[in-house]
Amino acid sequence: MDFRDTAEETAFRAEVQLLPDGSVKVLVGVTDIGTGAKTTMGLIAAETLGVPLESIAVVYGDTDIAPYSPGESGSRTTGYTGMAVIEAAQNVRKQLLEAAAERLQQRREDLDIKDGKIVSKAETAKTWNIAEVAGRNVDALVASVTTNPQESGKARMDFAAHFTEVEVNLETGKVRVMRYVAAQDSGTIINRLTAASQVKVFIFPFRLSGPQDFIIAPTITPAVMASIQLPKNQLHASVRGMGI
Question: Interhelix angle for 192-203 vs 37-49, to 10°?
């Protein structure tokens, strides 16, 4: 992890290693400053590879081995470093399936990875532990990826609408918050705990008592939307900041 004022300012890097015992290391430059970035990178790698989160170890903040990161700001970690994690994990997944096809004498197109196992799509009863294939390697299967999102002339925008119902004592001027509703156009939520915490931290100053519900509603398409061009190499158009 390092921070430099160079032409690499917008370069986001990640490395994924599949070890011979079947476990996975994800090396990223991002530092978890309380936003759950470590867990989020692990979730992204686990879903892409088809393995459980428990098998993922995220390594960050080690200046000896962690790749470059321009820093945690502007809601870039999930969308940009996450894209590097996806591409690196996809590369490792490809390497593993190709090795499995050769060593298990199966057709590559008949193999998939689900729930931490290599499975046969042709014969669903056939499964193999990843370690059966990866364990024959002396070294890990490794992929390193650098993404360089181009933001010039483009926008990364978050949308939210917050509503407050208050009660005002006309004699004393005392204001009491009766209800607070925060609607966040959040897109695809990857780390639910982080997303909920991000919204609640904005509401916290009101110190509301009583039940507080966090509801993930279906996507709502507004009648009118501005045309916004998103940067290339972002994780997905539906992944963005929470607008706080």
Answer: 150
* pLDDT score, position 74: 59
Walk across the sheet containing 127-129 and list its strands: 111-114, 117-120, 127-129
pLDDT for the residue numbered 215: 59
Q: Which domains, from first to last, does the chain contain?
A: 12-147 (3.30.365.10), 152-244 (no CATH)
For residue 205, the 8-state DSSP code is: G
| 3-class secondary-structure state, position 184 | strand
Tokens standing for residue 117: 């196992």
Nearest to 43 by CA among 71, 77, 3: 77
Quickly list DSSP for 101-156. HHHTT--GGGEEEETTEEEESSSTT-EEEHHHHHTT-SS-EEEEEEE----TT---
- Token pair 């879903």: residue: 47
228, 181 contact by CB (below 8 A): no
- The secondary structure of residue 54, as a DSSP letter, is G
How distant is the alpha carbon of residue 187 from its chain centre?
12
Q: Closest Cα partner for 241 from 16, 87, 82? A: 82
- Please, are residues 25 and 57 in contact by the beta-carbon 8 Å criterion? yes
Phi, psi of 180 (to 5 degrees): -135, 125
Give pLDDT tens digits for 213-229. Answer: 655 555 444 333 333 33
